[in-house]
Design a protein that fits this description.
The protein is of the alpha+beta class and 342 residues long. It has helices at 2-15, 21-31, 37-44, 50-83, 106-119, 134-137, 171-180, 221-236, 289-294, 311-319, 332-335; strands at residues 124-125, 131-133, 157-158, 161-166, 185-194, 206-216, 242-249, 252-261, 278-287, 303-310. The longest helix is centred in the N-terminal third of the chain and has 34 residues, at 50-83. The radius of gyration is 38 Å and the shape is elongated.
Length: 342
């Protein structure tokens, strides 16, 4: 009786087919699993006389191996059949599916654009640490010991170490460049800076700056003006006007504030420019000889200019944003405005 059942199972295994995953799974359940017909044969061995168990066990093992071998063949046949299936050609006349995409943050886009403009006229990039010592952040830049910027109301000092602070400007990177590189030097230093200020629509304790430095023989204030004229027109448009106002910075002499004509009113006067028609974008000046000497550069042979701008200020003007806090609040309603057009 068992021999007939074994022959029947062998025949069923030999003729088995699997045209899809469901039929393959049905085969596995019928011939491979513990509750399969092969499994039932093993269960029947308990009722056989001891002298018949060995021979019947060999027969069942052959059936089991045959079922497993057939199962592997069915898997290969099914996989080969799927790989050879002809793929449907997509209908190119159908309208595209609108997939939501992200966008570059306005600060990142502004930073990249500033770098692109200055790289085209020979400036390279330099970076430095955000935690700085007193020498690179203040002393080398000609800050007197009693300068207000050294006090707690402007600077985040590291606890228990008054000589270490979060950098207040990226001018510290310029000091490191001048200490380790001989002129000519033409470098741009973008980065995050920190000031101990109250957060408002016009100020923040964490913001981004980009500062430029050019040191070589016979560098003049005219070179500085032409460089910034070029930047303003590339960044804001050919009709943008630029003016320089006398100012004071410890590390430059002479020094000047940089203003551009208001982008909102075209220079006629509005709330943004307070009716003046001008908006400040940064500071600049000729590098003070003391700074060059502090960095090991001969101030008799070499001169240079430096400038610095807030990336947030540039982005606010370019995209007409009136609240500085929007850049750091991660409000998706604000960020969605800067996604690329599809």
């Amino acid at each position: 009786m068992q021999i007939d059942k074994v022959a029947e199972i062998k025949s069923a295994i030999a003729t088995a087919e699997a045209r899809n995953q469901q039929e393959l799974e049905e085969y596995r359940l019928k011939f491979i699993s513990k509750k399969s017909v092969v499994g039932e044969l093993f269960a029947e061995m308990r009722h056989l006389p001891a002298e018949e168990k060995k021979g019947f066990g060999q027969v069942i093992n052959e059936v089991k191996q045959l079922a497993e071998q057939k199962f592997q063949e069915l898997i290969e046949q099914l996989n080969n059949g799927l790989s050879n299936t002809k793929k449907e050609t997509p209908d190119l006349t159908l309208p595209p599916t609108q997939i939501p995409v992200g966008g570059i943050h306005p600060l990142t886009a502004t930073r990249q654009r500033i770098i692109e403009i200055f790289e085209r006229i020979g400036f390279n990039l330099s970076e430095g640490p955000e935690i700085e010592d007193d020498w690179h952040n203040f002393t080398a830049l000609n800050f007197p010991e009693n300068h207000p910027a050294r006090e707690m109301q402007d600077t985040f000092f590291i606890e228990k170490n008054p000589d270490i602070a979060l950098r207040t400007h990226t001018s510290s990177v310029q000091v490191r460049v001048m200490e380790n590189q001989k002129p000519p030097i033409r470098t741009l230093s973008p980065g995050r800076v920190f000031r101990n200020e109250a957060i408002s629509a016009r100020a923040h304790c964490i913001f981004h700056q980009v500062e430029g430095l050019y040191v070589d023989e016979a560098v003049s204030f005219a070179d500085l003006k032409q460089t910034l004229f070029h930047f303003a027109k590339e960044m804001f448009g050919k009709t943008t006007k630029v003016r320089f106002r006398p100012s004071f910075f410890p590390f430059t002499e002479p020094s000047a504030e940089i203003d551009i004509s208001c982008l909102l009113c075209g220079g006629t006067g509005c709330n943004v420019c307070k009716g003046t028609g001008w908006v400040e974008i940064g500071g600049s000046g000729m590098v003070d000889p003391n700074v060059l000497e502090n960095c090991g550069i001969d101030s008799i042979k070499y001169t240079g200019f430096a400038f610095g701008m807030g990336i947030e200020r540039i982005a606010m003007l370019k995209y007409q944003i009136k609240d500085l806090r929007l850049f750091t609040e991660n409000d998706v309603r604000f960020l969605r405005q800067f996604r690329p057009m599809l």
